[in-house]
Amino acid sequence: MKSSIILIEDRPTRQQIFTHDLKINLNNFPLLKNVCGGDEFHLSKEKISNEISFFDDYNVIMIHRSALTPEERNSLIEYVNNKSKTLIFFSGGISSTLIQKIGKGQLLTINSKDFYSENLVLFLENSGKEILELAFGKHWELNLLIGANEKIAYYILNYTKKPLQIILDDLDLPQWIKNKYVNIESGLVEKDQLISINKSIHTDIKKLLR
User: Fold this and answer.
1) Which residues, listed in sequence order, are joined to residue 173 by a DSSP beta bridge?
2) Are 49 and 43 in contact (CB under 8 A)?
3) Whether residue 112 is found in the same domain as residue 154
4) Are 149 and 116 contained in the same domain?
């Protein structure tokens, strides 16, 4: 199997400590190219500035953010902005997990401890197809539905009729939630329509909790 994910880590000791606790060897995952320290790390890092097309073979690029200069970070962000790829920055200085759309691609920022976790194992074992597994674990769907349910419930409290696009911008829901639950034509949205959406989300939350 050809590697479709690349992990670039400048601190071998950190990876060794975290993966030892997980009792895994990242080099045993065929879909993952694990670049961990040494000359290979420096060569891979140089590709960002000199030959960024090097990353064309990978769907997911995971890299220690603190190992990069601001210019290198911006180059990678601009690269995934123009490609349908996922970029993951992990670092001990990142306090919370965040996924954001950037052009055709997406960016996940995550703390190193959360990155080197059972979520990474789950993500790799499932062929790296669902980035939300890495971000939120096996209960990613439940976690995001609960967050959406709470956000919509609060939004409804002081709601006055607004166009659908304004509501979607205000709520900033994940795309898969919008696709699944927001079955509303464009135009002014009634409060009862939002209540109906939230009831559907709440019903699915209860199913996932069984």
Assistant:
1) none
2) no
3) no
4) no
The set of residues, in sequence order, having a beta carbon less than 8 Å from that of 203 and lying 6+ positions away, is: none
110 to 53, 63, 87: CA distances (angstroms):
25, 11, 11
Instruction: Report helix, strand or coil for 88.
Output: strand
Residues 87-120 pLDDT 10s: 999 999 999 888 888 888 999 999 999 999 999 9
Instruction: Give yes or no: residues 56 and 130 share one domain.
Output: yes
Q: How many helices and strands in the chain, by DSSP H and E?
A: 10, 8
- Total domain count for the chain? 2
Ordered alpha helix ranges (H), 95-174 = 112-115, 118-125, 131-136, 140-157, 164-171
The pTM score is 0.79
Range of the domain at 116: 5-136
Q: Which amino acid is it at 177?
A: I
Same domain, 60 and 156: no
